């Protein structure tokens, strides 16, 4: 940490240049004797990345920012706040603390939080910022979290771990065992110090295989923001052997859609041809795999076992987008544009043999407008186009 970056005039310079072109700024050099232009540019870039993702940090004076990659890898405030509502008790240890967003929100619910971070600079930055933010109940340890827990004498109400979503050679990973640290190797150590474990994982991981790799999974939370799955949260309770609850959560514009079901689901879906309304699940539902559960709980029909679109004659409160069907047409690329009589439409494909780009190229339909076309396969295995208006 270069504490000279916290001087008032330097902080003002950073604020004044948030919207400036960084390459041009770098060419001008640093106006401050003991601060390099690279350090200034790093603060400007990192702070700008926080404006939407971490508004509390962005709006608080005197925050020291880490390298931009640390901002990219950290939880957003909206997901950190959600996770904090899942814990209780007096103590929690964050084994992979990073910039400290999750630890900060846990500290609002837990009396004592231990933040472990093996990177010295990042640990110092987090400790400094916690004081700026008034989070005085967080104890920062410049330690590898696994090593610290292994040698600790304290028990904790919760253990939180966010394994790196990249392997040692920086490639994206798709299995729990390939994340760093590999939590499957350390579960016995975790259970010696706590009965409750929360694991944050990449949305790319397969839920079923991850459950099979772990012990005592009680809940899985699939968190999506603005229809993009951001995190998978696994809650483990030592000795738990009951049904696993899957909760698909979609947060957008200060509102939250939530849908729950059991894993594995033994529900049967019902099927039909398109009726009056069409429903498209949000991304959290799609990731959860609770397709039959949606049909069963809401009393609506699926169009096809593989299409994951739903229909009903009565309007339902649905976790996703809802449409009123205008017409259903058999797919014929030569007739589509002529049949609908418009030159642009919002196109979605579900269980269909062509891509959106391919359809646009063949039909000449441009993007936009108030018309929605769903290219899919119906109950009779026919390729169809469902023309809709948003409800």
Automatic annotation (TrEMBL):
InterPro entries assigned: PG_1098_Fer (IPR054168), SAM-dependent_MTases_sf (IPR029063), Thump-like (IPR041497)
The keyword Methyltransferase belongs to this UniProt entry's keyword annotation: yes
Residue ranges constituting the THUMP-like domain according to the UniProt record: 320-390
Domain spans labelled PG-1098 ferredoxin-like: 277-319
GO biological process: methylation
Origin superkingdom: Bacteria
Keyword terms, alphabetized: Methyltransferase, Transferase
Translocase found in the keyword field: no
GO molecular function: methyltransferase activity
Protein name: Class I SAM-dependent methyltransferase
